[in-house]
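Sequence and structure are kept together here, with a separate record for every protein. A complete record is shown below as an example:
=====
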Amino acid sequence: QNLMSNPRVRVQVRRGRKLTWRAGTATVVTDDDPYELQRRLSATSLNRRLNATVVRMVGTDLTTVRIDLD
């Protein structure tokens, strides 16, 4: 609900070893399968695989959110 009322967000982005904050607009992607997205992303690295495992263990209603950076 908060995302619907104010879609402006800030995300931390890594550029090499430097972390920077970027502003953007968030949109809920309703026609996406978040479990399939997790499977595809987790195939690319061990950290993503571990993150996907934890999210599946504690997540109840997964939703994909797209962030368009300014």
Notes: The first helix runs from residue 2 to 5. The radius of gyration is 14 Å.
